[in-house]
């Protein structure tokens, strides 16, 4: 039996948060990718920090609008898979599927560039892990649980069927 999230959250509580985080996550991943591939020195100045923060804020609303449908589709897919396969409930599976769902189409569009595929895979994995927040599934019904529920239901009938002394 797996219990990863507290029961007070709704099933889809992570999906809106992931859609809102899509813009800032994209900017961070692309910025880190640029830093990793460039040989230039990086000077951190207050103007550069302000410009980066304003870019993230300006990208948040359009990225949220673009990310709503894929985030919703991926969340529904993984919730359905988690209902049928217990391994699909694991956060690592959510991350792998999110990476594949975003990196696959990106690789088809971008071609051979490994950096864009890696960036899209990282963005998809992070957003999928955010979507995983609050996802819960009912406890599986085993034969033992079903029998004990039947036995507990039969106890009051047996007690009421005994003659009073």
**Domain unit count:** 1
Approximate helicity band: over 70%
Number of strands: 0
What is the first-to-last residue Cα distance? 45 Å
Largest sheet: none
Proportion of residues in extended strands: under 5%
Structural class: mainly alpha
Helix and strand run: HHHHH
Shape: elongated
List unreliable stretches of 5+ residues: 3-9
Description:
It is a single chain. This protein has helices at residues 14-37, 46-84, 91-110, 114-131, 143-161. Helix 1 crosses helix 2 (46-84) and helix 1 (14-37) runs antiparallel to helix 4. The chain has one domain. It is mostly helical. The longest helix has 39 residues, at 46-84. Mean pLDDT is 79; it is low at 3-9. Keywords: Membrane, Transmembrane, Transmembrane helix. The chain crosses the membrane at residues 48-72, 92-110, 116-137.
């Amino acid at each position: 039996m797996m219990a990863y999230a507290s029961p007070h959250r709704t099933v889809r509580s992570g999906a809106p948060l992931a859609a809102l985080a899509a813009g800032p996550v994209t900017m961070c991943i692309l910025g880190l990718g640029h830093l990793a591939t460039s040989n230039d020195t990086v000077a951190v100045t207050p103007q550069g920090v302000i410009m980066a923060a304003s870019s993230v804020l300006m990208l948040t609303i359009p990225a949220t609008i673009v990310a709503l449908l894929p985030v919703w589709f991926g969340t529904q897919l993984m919730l359905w898979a988690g209902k049928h396969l217990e391994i699909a409930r694991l956060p690592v599976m959510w991350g792998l599927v999110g990476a594949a769902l975003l990196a696959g189409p990106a690789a088809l569009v971008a071609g051979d560039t490994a950096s864009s595929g890696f960036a899209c895979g990282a963005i998809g994995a992070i957003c999928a892990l955010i979507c995983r927040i609050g996802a819960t599934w009912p406890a599986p019904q085993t034969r033992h649980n079903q029998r004990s529920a039947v036995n507990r239901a039969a106890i009051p009938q047996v007690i009421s069927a005994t003659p009073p002394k």
